[in-house]
Amino acid sequence: MLKFLVLLFFKISFCNGAKILIYNPEYAFARSHRYFLGELSDILADAGHTVVMYQPHFDADTNVTGSKNNKVQTLTRASELDLKLPDFVEQIWTADESIYESEKVMNELHEMFGKNCKNQLKDASLMKKLKNEKFDLGIAELFDPCGFAVFEKIDLKKYITVFTMGLYDSISNLLGIPQATSYVPTGYGGVLPKTNFYGRLQNAIGTFITWSTDIYRDMIFSQVIYETENRHLSVYEKAINASFIFSNAEEYLDFPRPTSYKVVNIGGFNLKEAQPLNEKFRNMINKASKIVFVSFGSVTHCSLMPQSLKESLFEMFRIFPEFTFLWRHNKPEAENLQGLKNVYLEEWFPQQEILAHPKTVAVITHAGLNSVIEIGYAGVPAIAFPIFCDQFKNSLLFEYRGTGIALNKMNVTKTTFVDAFQKIVNEKSYKIKAQNLAKMIKSKPMSAKDRVLKYTQFAAEFGEMDNLDLYGRYLNTIHFYNIDVYLFIFSVFMVVFLLAGLFIFFVLKIFKKTVIKSKVE
């Protein structure tokens, strides 16, 4: 009996107390990624795991880990490089919204990530320290693939791959999932599943562009690994060999798509019950009858917003004085509100609490994926104003589900927001569909948080598994799509058709000769 209890104790200790390394680089231009992995660290630590968050720094002026849990241990490393994009924030409002422009930005980031990764892998003292920790499990995101190179370097065999922006097109393909470009929107695209020929063409081209970018990223890191380790390794192959793929997707909100048992949707895992507002925000809301929350994310600076866009917003503020607008703004003190009394500007708002408040009737959002999921969870109609990268695709989720309207930043007029806002607040269907969607998300059989905890525990115990691998990932394009089979069937059909044609031709020819001969006789 005692022996059984001892074994049971060790079993429970392992299941509930794995030692986990989370690679969570710190860079100012993608705070949402840092917070996502930080919150993942927090709930794993609360579940009894020992969590070490390794954060190589990219920017000297940032010092936010993304974690709020003092149980999470943080290991940092200063960067020897200046890895900022100096013009990125300034150009983001006016940059072309095409997939090509988005991928140009991503390519710049990948080159920077590669340089920083090389320095990390060369840091023998750091790598030895990480290896000596003997972690049970690693978690890393493919946005910056260096985490997988680090796992390889320290011989960490068990790990989970995370996607904070949803599943990449190229990863879907590598997993053996059919790439249905006819109805699954590409990662940075702006096409709905139900589209015309031009839309499908645009989506196919967009998929090709994102593939080429991912190939370029893989080449960069393969070169980094070869230069530091003198061997070949594809970080993409490493990523898909993970126990599971955690995708920041909410299946009741996202575009339906082919998938794999290996892909686990965890969108909204970090959402909690709304907390009471502090006195400052409570006073704002108490004075209002109807609230509209306005936020363009943490990367975009509203102080740099083009004047035409700002005028369109201010026109909406003026025309609807019965609504109170809470606007998240990076420099609230510098903004001229032109005498408007129904607008409050703050550097930060408790977004989840405001969205959940019964007075909130609409939200104007940049359509960052985390915000889109929060809005879906809150059941609030939305006006989406995407600015860059995956936000164009995310914005269409509102239109696809009938819970909002997506705008185009390249076609802003003075009445852009006025027209959209009138539609959102006057047509009840948006609110009804938004609230119904929220109810479905909250009532689904297994919550996203439970999925994170259970699948992480499972991965820590069993590690890399091929049980869930689609065999299609091992096939080339010809075999995967049965091109040779269809060509064979087509060839057989053509041969049969040709033989049948020749047979009919000769029968008719003989018949014709017989008829002519009969007439002659």
Automatic annotation (TrEMBL):
CDD domains: GT1_Gtf-like (cd03784). Keywords: Glycosyltransferase, Membrane, Signal, Transferase, Transmembrane, Transmembrane helix. GO terms for cellular component: membrane. Belongs to the UDP-glycosyltransferase family. SUPFAM superfamilies: UDP-Glycosyltransferase/glycogen phosphorylase. It is a single-pass membrane protein. The keyword Ion transport does not apply. This is glucuronosyltransferase. It comes from Panagrolaimus superbus. Its main location: membrane. It catalyses: glucuronate acceptor + UDP-alpha-D-glucuronate = acceptor beta-D-glucuronoside + UDP + H(+). Residues 1-17 form the signal peptide. It comes from the Eukaryota. Its EC number is 2.4.1.17. GO terms for molecular function: glucuronosyltransferase activity. The keyword Signal applies. It is found in: Membrane. The chain crosses the membrane at residues 485-508.
